[in-house]
Amino acid sequence: QVQLVESGGGLVQAGDSLRLSCAGSGLTLRLSAVGWFRQSPGKERDFVGAVMHFGGSTVYADSVKGRFTISRDNAKNTVYLQVNSLKFEDTAVYYCAADPAGFGGRTTDKYPYWGQGTQVTVSS
After folding, report:
1. Which residues are CB-contacts of 83 (< 8 A; sequence separation ≥ 6)?
2. Taking a C-beta distance cutoff of 8 angstroms, is the pair 14, 24 a contact?
3. 64-116, pLDDT tens digit by residue?
4. DSSP assignment, residue 35?
5. Which of 4, 28, 60, 67 is the most exposed place for a label (fewest CB within 10 A)?
6. 88: which DSSP letter?
7. CA Rg value for the chain
8. pLDDT (tens digit per residue) in 11-60
9. What's the pLDDT score for residue 124?
């Protein structure tokens, strides 16, 4: 059974940093594309960034480029999202998702497996 579990969210002040974790079981994340998305109340789930299996390249949404970084710890079967210089508008539930085929993408339909989400709240 495939399971993704996010952790690391919390209540922080503007300008602070967090490291979000996505721990996988039932699939090997280093062989998968892993995407991060976020969703605020009343809004759609938006793409944040992703790491591809092939070559391990990363892509990011323009709104977070230069502030957010995705990395992998293959030994722990975990993908991280380092979020720096947080802004009030970064407040959302952050989800990780996995595509075992390794392709992923910028849309939610590219990922068959999802975690339950972790809340990030940034106070201004």
Report:
1. 17, 18, 19, 20, 64, 67, 68, 90, 120
2. no
3. 999 999 999 999 999 999 999 999 999 999 999 999 998 899 999 999 999 99
4. E
5. 28
6. G
7. 13
8. 999 999 999 999 999 999 999 999 999 999 999 999 999 998 877 899 99
9. 82
